[in-house]
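SAMPLE LOG
Freezer: B-3
Tube label: C17
Construct: single chain, 473 aa
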Amino acid sequence: MSVTLRPRFLPDPDAPKEWGTQGAWLARMVRTGFRVPPTSAFGKTQVQEWKSSQTGDLLLAPMPEHFPLSTETLLQVLMGEERNWPLILRAGNPESQTPSVLVEKPTPEGLWDAFKKITSDPVGATSVLVQPVLHGEIVGRSYSRNPKDPTELNGLTEWTLPTTRDQKKSRQSDWVPAELKPFWKDLWVHVELAEKIVKGPALLNWLWDGEQLWFLKVSPIQPPQTSEAKRTIRHLLVDLDGTLLGAHNTPLRFDFTHKTLREFRKHTGWLRAVQAMHAIQTVIKIPATETTDEHTNGRRVIQAFSKSLKVPVIQGEEILKNTIAQVFPSLKRYFFPIPGAKDFLEWAKERYPMTLATNPVWDVEYVKLRLEWAGIESNIFWAMTHAGIMHACKPTSDYYRHVMRLSPGLDPSQYLLIGDDVKNDLPATRVGIPVFILSEDSTAIRIPTPRGSAPAWKGNYLSLRKFLSEETA
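STRUCTURE (predicted):
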């Protein structure tokens, strides 16, 4: 067994493709300012070389400030010449069956055995990350969300004092534990950053050495394992536009914009009319900061419109409501029922409670009007989203969390969102809701979602009905 040490620093442009997903996350951690132990790697190419010839390159990382080993000693550890400092080998691909192997007293033979173990499973590591093991006063992990329910924003920290081995827990909203007080605020700043690295609910492993906070690993929060009974779909969330009701979008948008600006023009100039429409489109994309009756989508639109038009809110509300009442019914000719939608709902209403999960930019009367144009009765739905009760729009996670609160008591995995728009509907998987995207496929086909998200499928209405029948069989 022989190795060539070659400098290759961790914030490396090749890390995402050579070091696997975990390596890419570590590289982002370093670039974002996390204090990470010096992580070296066998990239994908090096793994193949080692497996075939037991020789290859070990890509080195720089020595972070305040690290308790010198560069020379670390090299000796990596070469198996210094046996008094443990190493941990981590799989660069998180789905590996052996995610990590600890080598307590590194020797060339011991390192090679660990390397073979982590790369030789049926789903083995395609790249290997090597970190020296730090000795800490406190070792812990922090979840950016509730690990049992990632829709709950109140994070959780678990930690252990090596001297006692007692595990303790504390919620983000709790009083600051005395042991964690020196770094509590800094810890949660990094936990929030971790969500941006994995693009979703995150788990951050860390260590406190008495002076410095070290971050060892970041990964997505895995959805909790549920029983077969709990995985059964018990509530359907049904989109409206594009799912139940189709539209000729280009002439619709042109006619709607023309007629709306013409109505606004009766109260102001053209420029301010355009600015008012832009203000509405801007505010509706941003979730409310408060969930009160004064911060619903409808109220926020009225406030933004009135401010842009420079009129009192009462007057702005009257202008806006009169305009919509004048314009909206005239657009009926651009809409048409989606084939198969009504038949599916007739079948589904006998088997599931359903929520109409439309994008809540309109008041309830215009949601019901569009249902009427689709030939569907509104009373088949348990609840429906609209601008008068919702505080966010698709595709934000806040929207999907609020939708679930309309029919409380279920696990996110017990819902199924039925929609047609990958951009607006598929993000529901980030909060644990399975999704079915309507397409022309005659069989239900699994479609990829980010790691740690709920599953998703695509297919037509017939395949959706068959999918649900099989799911409950």
